[in-house]
Amino acid sequence: MTGTRVVVVGATGNVGTSVVQALAEDPAVESVLGLARRVPHWQPPKTRWEAVDVQPGGADLEPLFTGADAVVHLAWKFQPTHDPAETWRTNVLGSLRVFDAVAAAGVPALVHASSVGAYSPGPKDRAVDESWPTHGWPQAAYTREKSYLERVLDTYERAHPGLRVVRMRPSFLFKRESASEQRRIFAGRLLPGRLVRPGLIPVVPDLAGLRFQALHTDDAAAAYRAAVLLPVRGAFNLAAEPPVDAAVLGRLLGAKTVPVPVAPVRAALAAAWRLRLVPASPDLFDAVLRLPLMDSARARRELSWEPRYTAVQAVEAFLDGLRSGEGMDTVPLAPDRLRAAAAS
User: Fold this and answer.
1) Per residue in 270-297, is it b (16+ CB within 10 Å) or e — as a string?
2) Integer Cα distance of 100 and 29 in angstroms
3) DSSP three-state, residue 17
4) Per-residue confidence of the chain (344 residues) as pLDDT tens digits?
5) What is the 3-state secondary structure (H, E, C) of 162-192?
6) Other CB atoms within 10 A of residue 82 CB
7) Which of 18, 98, 176, 339 has a CA 20 to 30 Å removed from the CA of 42?
8) How far, CA to CA in Å, does 262 sit from each of 130, 188, 208, 267?
9) Dihedral of CA 250/278/17/326: which sign?
10) How far out from the chain centre does Cα 26 lie?
């Protein structure tokens, strides 16, 4: 009897590299096909690569999916936030191409990367389960796109009842190797990684709504692997404890916490974004302050899943990687020093 054959779409980013590694290390998995816009030098066992762009006009995906036991869809473009039509082409129209190709190729299972960002605004003092509404925060492109795909999958599941669809809804995902990529995506050049160390940042603003969940990316990958191999379907929240707030960040950075009104912070971020000094939009900032806390009991119960790292350890790993400029040998995760060398 042959093992499980898996295709991972978007296999070279923060989540993709951890998912590919987790699958490649599992004896039940026979092979992994990693799809990405640019083939990496990184070569985990049992894995081969194909250069593919999921946007409309890209390669035909059906032949690449034919014969697979599961497709894990992770491809996502965070930038450019000033051009939401461009992110829509990859994140929504590209996802529709993936979903259609999975059905056309007769793949038995689709595991889709949704997000805590798909959820409607919710409580910060208690955790919600997977039944919480997934209408997102309509002003932010990221949350709007994640929410839209939830509605697409509602229809998709009814149209393809024999196809097992799993929606993973993780909290913020961090690992040491993703630090350079995440700094480029969200902070840009205004945040030199070497400055993010205890004693150099004197104050952490204590903002209303600044309470979120975090998870080590490798722990999320373990849940994805379980979703591929187990006969489960539906949505799964993924988060570690404890929730991260200003007090936790202050302890990690050796900084004082100071209550600050949200309005001036948002105004400063909006001005920096309009001037293209930071890549993260103020609308995403608004969404983060409104995201609910998630209850991950279903993942623990049905996936036999338990995070190995606390949320604080996940953030610590990211901060350590930020200070040392960590990355991996893939284009999305490449550390800044390698990008600079390639450009010179």
Assistant:
1) bebbeeeebbbbbbbbbbbbbbbbbbbe
2) 24
3) helix
4) 479 999 999 999 999 999 999 999 999 999 999 999 999 999 999 999 999 999 999 999 999 999 999 999 999 999 999 999 999 999 999 999 999 999 999 999 999 999 999 999 999 999 999 999 999 999 999 999 999 999 999 999 999 999 999 999 999 999 999 998 998 888 776 555 555 555 567 889 999 999 999 999 999 999 999 999 999 999 999 999 999 999 999 999 999 999 999 999 999 999 999 999 999 999 999 999 999 999 999 999 999 999 999 999 999 999 999 888 889 999 999 987 555 544 43
5) CCEEEEEEECEEECHHHHHHHHHHHHHHHCC
6) 12
7) 98
8) 29, 21, 7, 9
9) negative
10) 22
What is the separation, in whole angstroms, between the first and last Cα of the chain? 50
Q: Which amino acid, residue 254?
A: G
DSSP result, 143-166: HHHHHHHHHHHHHHHHH-TTSEEE
Residue in 99, 113, 109 with CA at minimum distance from that of residue 68: 109
Task: Report the phi/psi class of residue 42: left, alpha or beta, with left for phi > 0 and alpha for psi in -120 to 50.
Answer: beta
Q: Report pTM.
A: 0.94
Largest CA distance in the chain: 62
Beta strands in the chain (DSSP E): 4-9, 29-36, 47-51, 70-73, 109-113, 127-128, 164-170, 172-174, 203-206, 211-212, 214-216, 234-238, 244-245, 256-259, 293-294
Which tokens sit at 311? 């949320």
Amino acid at 343: A
